[in-house]
C-alpha cells in the first residue's frame, strides 16, 4: 500500500507543477487498488489542495476515475462554500463599515482574495476578522443584526470569539472576531495588533470595505500559525490532526513570496531582525521552496542564512509543555489582571470543556477530571488548550 511519505511527495510534485502552470503528474502505475486511491485522495483533502488540483492547468483525465470524481466533488463543494461564505462575510464587513467600524481580514480569507486566482482554491473553515478593542460592542451588534449567532468559545480564549451564520440550511459560516490579533501574550509581543493596521491592502474582490495586512505581516503570521498547528494540531470534520504540515500552507508562502519586491524583502527582514524572527522567515521560505521556485536577493539570502539558533518564539510555539506555555504567557502579560486571568483559566476549567478533552471519562466527577488535567500539564504531555 502507498505510504504517507510517498503520497505526500506525489501531491507536492503535483502542486509544484500546478503553480508553474504545468500539467500535473500522471498517476503512478502501481497505485491502482482501492486502498491506494482512497488514501491518496484523503491525503489531498487533508492537505487542503483538492480545489487547487481541480483547477490545475490541463485535465486530470490520466488519473483514475474514482480520484477524478472525488477531486471534482471537492472542487464543486469548495466553489459553493466560497460563494455563500463570500456573501456572508462581505455583508458583515459592509455592515461594520457602515457603522464606522474598521476591520482587517486575516489568515486564509485574506490570502484567498489577495493571492489566489480563484479564492475557492484556498480551503479554509472560517474567516478571521480583526477590529479595534473599543469597537467590540458595536461589532457584536452588527453581526447580530446580520443574523450571526455568538457561539460559546472554547475555554481559555481571551481576545476573540466566534460568530456563526447558517445559510440555506446547509452551510454554517463562521467569523472569528478578534480584538487583538493573536490570543497568546507571548505572540502579541512579536505580532502586535498595530502591525495589522499599517499599510493594509484592499481586498476589492471580497468587498470594497475589506482590507488585508501587508505581505510581510501576513507571511510572519502564517508561518507562526503553521508551526502552531503542526505542533499542537488542527481540527478536521472528524478528528484532530497532529504533526502535519499541510501543502496549502506552503502554497500560501509561495504565492506571498512570489509577489515580493526588494522593498518587501527589506520590510520582512527588518521585522525579523527587530523581533528575532529570522528562523521563522527561514521556515516559511523553506516551505515555499518545497512547492515552488522562490527567487531571493543575495543580500536577503545571506541574512536568512544567519538564522541557526532556535528563537524564543519557535521554542514557545513548539513547546510540548502546557505549564511552560503558562509561565511564558504570564511573563509576557502587560497587566496584572491578564496575569490573574491566565492563572485562573489554567486552574479552573468548566466541566463541559474537561469532558471534551476526556470524552472517555465523562462519568468522572469534575474534581477528578481537574486532577487528571493537572497531572498532564505538569508532566509535560499536555498540548494546546
Structure in a nutshell:
The protein has helices at 4-19, 34-46, 50-54, 65-98, 107-115, 136-145, 185-190, 193-197, 215-232, 247-258, 262-275, 278-289, 298-305, 312-317, 322-332, 336-347, 351-357, 366-378; strands at residues 104-106, 127-130, 149-151, 160-167, 171-178, 201-202, 211-212, 234-235, 240-241.
Helicity range: 40-55%
Number of E-state strands: 9
Task: Give the overall silhouette.
Answer: globular
Please write the string of helix (H) and strand (E) elements: HHHHEHEHEEEHHEEHEEHHHHHHHHH
Question: Measured on Cα atoms, how large is the radius of gyration?
Answer: 22 Å
CA-CA gap between termini: 36 Å
Q: Which structural class fits the helix and strand makeup?
A: alpha+beta
Largest sheet: 5 strands, mixed
Question: Which spans of ≥5 residues are poorly predicted at pLDDT below 50?
Answer: 381-385
Q: Order of strands across the biggest sheet?
A: 1-2-5-4-3
Give the overall pLDDT as a whole number: 91
What is the tally of helical segments? Answer: 18
Strand content: 5-15%
Amino acid at each position: 500500500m502507498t505510504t504517507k511519505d510517498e503520497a505526500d511527495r506525489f501531491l507536492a510534485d503535483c502542486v509544484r507543477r500546478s503553480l508553474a502552470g504545468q500539467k500535473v503528474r500522471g498517476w503512478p502505475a502501481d497505485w491502482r487498488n482501492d486502498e491506494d486511491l482512497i488514501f491518496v485522495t484523503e491525503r489531498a483533502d487533508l492537505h487542503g489542495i483538492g480545489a487547487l488540483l481541480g483547477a490545475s492547468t490541463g485535465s486530470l483525465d490520466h488519473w483514475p476515475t474514482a480520484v477524478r470524481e472525488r477531486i471534482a466533488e471537492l472542487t464543486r463543494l469548495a466553489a459553493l462554500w466560497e460563494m455563500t461564505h463570500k456573501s456572508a462575510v462581505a455583508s458583515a464587513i459592509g455592515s461594520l463599515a457602515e457603522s464606522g467600524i474598521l476591520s482587517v481580514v486575516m489568515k486564509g480569507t485574506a490570502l484567498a482574495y489577495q493571492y489566489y486566482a480563484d479564492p475557492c482554491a484556498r480551503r479554509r473553515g472560517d474567516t478571521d476578522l480583526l477590529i479595534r478593542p473599543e469597537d467590540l460592542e458595536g461589532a457584536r451588534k452588527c453581526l447580530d443584526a446580520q443574523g450571526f449567532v455568538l457561539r460559546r468559545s472554547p475555554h481559555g480564549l481571551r481576545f476573540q470569539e466566534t460568530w456563526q451564520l447558517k445559510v440555506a440550511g446547509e452551510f454554517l459560516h463562521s467569523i472569528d472576531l478578534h480584538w487583538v490579533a493573536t490570543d497568546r501574550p507571548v505572540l502579541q509581543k512579536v505580532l502586535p495588533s498595530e502591525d495589522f493596521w499599517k499599510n493594509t491592502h484592499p481586498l476589492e474582490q471580497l468587498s470594497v470595505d475589506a482590507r488585508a495586512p501587508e505581505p510581510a505581516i501576513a507571511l510572519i503570521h502564517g508561518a507562526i500559525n503553521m508551526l502552531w498547528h503542526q505542533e499542537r494540531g488542527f481540527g478536521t470534520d472528524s478528528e484532530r490532526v497532529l504533526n502535519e504540515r499541510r501543502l496549502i500552507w506552503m502554497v500560501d508562502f509561495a504565492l506571498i513570496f512570489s509577489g515580493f519586491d526588494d522593498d518587501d524583502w527589506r520590510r520582512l527582514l527588518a521585522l525579523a531582525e527587530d523581533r528575532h524572527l529570522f528562523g521563522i522567515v527561514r521556515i516559511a521560505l523553506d516551505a515555499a521552496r518545497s512547492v515552488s521556485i522562490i527567487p531571493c536577493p543575495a543580500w536577503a539570502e545571506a541574512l536568512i542564512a544567519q538564522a541557526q539558533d532556535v528563537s524564543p518564539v519557535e521554542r514557545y510555539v513548539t513547546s510540548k509543555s502546557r505549564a511552560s506555555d503558562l509561565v511564558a504567557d504570564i511573563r509576557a502579560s502587560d497587566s496584572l489582571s491578564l496575569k490573574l486571568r491566565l492563572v485562573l483559566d489554567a486552574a479552573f476549567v468548566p466541566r463541559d470543556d474537561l469532558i471534551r478533552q476526556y470524552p472517555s471519562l465523562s462519568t468522572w466527577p469534575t474534581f477528578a477530571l481537574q486532577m487528571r488535567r493537572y497531572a498532564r500539564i505538569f508532566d509535560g504531555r499536555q498540548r494546546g488548550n
